[in-house]
Amino acid sequence: MRNSRSSPEPMGEASMTLALRFAAGSHTGLIRDHNEDSGYAGPRLLAVADGMGGQAAGEVASSEVISTLVQLDDDIPGSDVLTSLGASAQHANARLRAMVEEDPQLDGMGTTLTALLWTGQRLGLVHIGDSRAYLLRDGMLTQITQDHTWVQRLVDEGRITEEEATTHPQRSLLMRALGSADHVEADLSIREVRAGDRYLICSDGLSGVVSHETLEHTLGGFQPPQDTIRELIELALRGGGPDNITCIVADVVDTGYGEYGEGDTLATRLHDNPQIVGAVAEVQGPQVTGQHPLTPAARAAELRAQQPPAPPPAPAPGNDGDGADEGVLGNFGAYHDQPYPQRRRRRWLGRSLLILLALALLGAGGYAGYRWTQNQYYIGVEGDHVAIYRGLSQDLGPLSLREVHTSHDEIELGLLAPFKQNDLKKTISVDSLRQAEQKVAELREEVACVLAARLQERQEAEQGEEAPAGDLQQESPPQNEQQPGTDQTEETEETGQPAQDDGNGTGSEEPAARDLPALTKEQEELAAECPTAAE
Predict the structure, then answer these.
(1) Which is higher by pLDDT, 487 or 253?
(2) Fewest beta carbons less than 10 Å away: which of 180, 229, 317, 501?
(3) Quick one: 5 exposed, middle or buried, by C-beta within 10 A (0-12, 13-18, 19+)?
(4) How many angstroms separate the Cα of 29 from the Cα of each of 25, 134, 271?
(5) Distance of alpha carbon 283 from alpha carbon 240, whole angstroms
(6) Residues with Cβ < 8 Å from 62, sequence gap 6 or more?
(7) Can you say whether residue 300 is alpha, beta or left, with left for phi > 0 and alpha for psi between -120 and 50 degrees?
(8) In terms of pLDDT, which residue wins out, 145 or 159?
């Protein structure tokens, strides 16, 4: 539903002094136990990175990438903005690869990146992964990036619809991410701006939960950016908050005229207050320099360092404690609930009786407890593949309480997304054997689709080698995308982006079929099980 209020009318370009008025926010969500998103908003640079890899690897990846790009906020705007953005993205990618070589425990980590770099009259855009950038102009919201996912490729090829993509089991399968290969191709483009434009950059924790129509309606209200950020995060939380939520809202405003007045110094201060949110804000250590910070990036670091830990706020009358008023520098943390004071029990006799009773129950119910464990199931890793276990994942001293119930050699761990690999290594709990089998069936389908993509890629490469040179010039080269669990360098040539007619990307050569991994007969049979492979 489009908001009836229109954006401010642009004024004559010759008389305008344009600037960005921005705000950023991040929330862990209601399911995740830590935040792997990172964001930075400054007078020149707006960037969001959604890390992945489990444990601490995801937050390390997103923090490293944002820390690498933040120097662009200090540089003097140049004419070759896309070169600066592309070089920074590749430098960040090389840094992630080097970190994995130094610490093998970080293997599998990666991150998306969507960033806008302001020159004063134009915006340069760099995009890798499935975080998104939107433009609201004249009341209409347009997505200006294209998701680098397996599901988006199926949509582009007409094999599934946009509606089917929102519920596809492999909708989170990334085909491109920083840290996934030695070279990752980024989408680069230049966008002309006008006063009244509103930009949104967000992770899929927002775009995957809140509909396009709701985003358009919320952004079209033209509330101040900070209020809009708060409203967007609340909408994602009401939708279940299944993932980390990070977003940046930036308005293009004329600081010379309009609501601020000509030469208003307050306008300049409003647009020059950098914000860092998410994992990158949490890992920044205090920086005591004793000097006033001279750059936006330095100011952001000092702002965070000077921020004292805030105590949980006391609930105001009529406030249900939903955390709507929390957040400093755009960070929307976990909800604070005041714990009830615990009374100390000093009755040692009662405590002793409870201990004796517990020991008696343990002795009497030992056998019954063991029988109970044999009716418990979970999903874990056996060697390099997936297996269903019966029992408990913990050991009781030297006694093992588990055994392999079903081994699935066809579901190789390395073919799954990195975060699922980490979940399996930590084991996935289920309520019954039937639920375990259903979950394994989903994993099998994901592996089948990964293999189907590899098989299709190899077949297209072989056809390309066999085709005459004249045919090759008439055909668009097939896409070649990075699959999870591989370390190969694969470059992709995109055919275009929706609603981005001024995109400016670079091409790359297709690898020969001999350079692509061959599938075994069993893997080809499994690939045929992918629901979209037969379409």
Answers:
(1) 253
(2) 317
(3) exposed
(4) 12, 22, 28
(5) 27
(6) 36, 37, 38, 49, 50, 51, 111, 278, 279, 280
(7) alpha
(8) 145
Query: Which two structure tokens, joined as six digits, stand for 92?
Result: 């960040």
More confident: 525 or 316 = 525
Q: 161: exposed, middle or buried (C-beta count within 10 Å: 0-12, 13-18, 19+)?
A: exposed
| Residue with tokens 């094999």, as numbered in its chain | 159
Distances (CA, A) of 136 to 26, 104, 212, 477: 21, 43, 11, 33
What residue has token string 């207050």?
273
* All structural domains of the chain: 18-256+271-283 (3.60.40.10), 374-460 (no CATH)
d(CA 183, CA 439): 34
pLDDT, tens digit, 9 for 90 and up, residues 121-142: 899 999 999 999 999 999 999 9
Quickly tell me which residue has 């990334």 as its tokens. 174
Mean pLDDT of 54-69: 87
Return the half-sphere exposure (C-beta side, CA atoms, 13 A cut-off) of residue 303: 20
One-letter identity of residue 327:
G
Checking if the pLDDT of 110 tops 50, the result is: yes
> Which strand (E) or helix (H) includes residue 146?
none
By the 8 A CB rule, do 508 and 185 touch?
Answer: yes
DSSP at 435: H
Compute the distance between CA of residue 157 and CA of residue 490 in angstroms, rounded to an integer: 20
pLDDT at res. 353: 62
Q: Of the candidates 218, 243, 237, which has an alpha carbon nearest to the alpha carbon of residue 335?
A: 237
Is 169 strand, coil or helix?
coil
SS3 178: strand
Among all chains, which residue has been given the structure tokens 């072989």?
462
Q: What's the distance, Cα to Cα, between the start and end of the chain in Å? A: 34
Does the pLDDT value for residue 172 go beyond 90?
no
Q: What is the DSSP string of 100-118?
A: HHH-GGGTT-EE-EEEEEE
Burial class of 335 by CB neighbour count within 10 A (0 to 12, 13 to 18, 19+): middle
- Please provide the size of the chain in residues: 535
CA distance 367 to 521: 47
Half-sphere exposure of 331 (CA within 13 A, CB side): 20
Least confident of 8-17, 20-29, 81-90: 8-17
* Threshold 0.85, pTM exceeds: no
H-helix or E-strand containing 125?
Answer: strand 122-128
The whole-number average pLDDT for the span 513-526 is: 77
Residue 325 has a pLDDT of 38
Q: What is the largest CA-CA distance in the chain?
A: 93
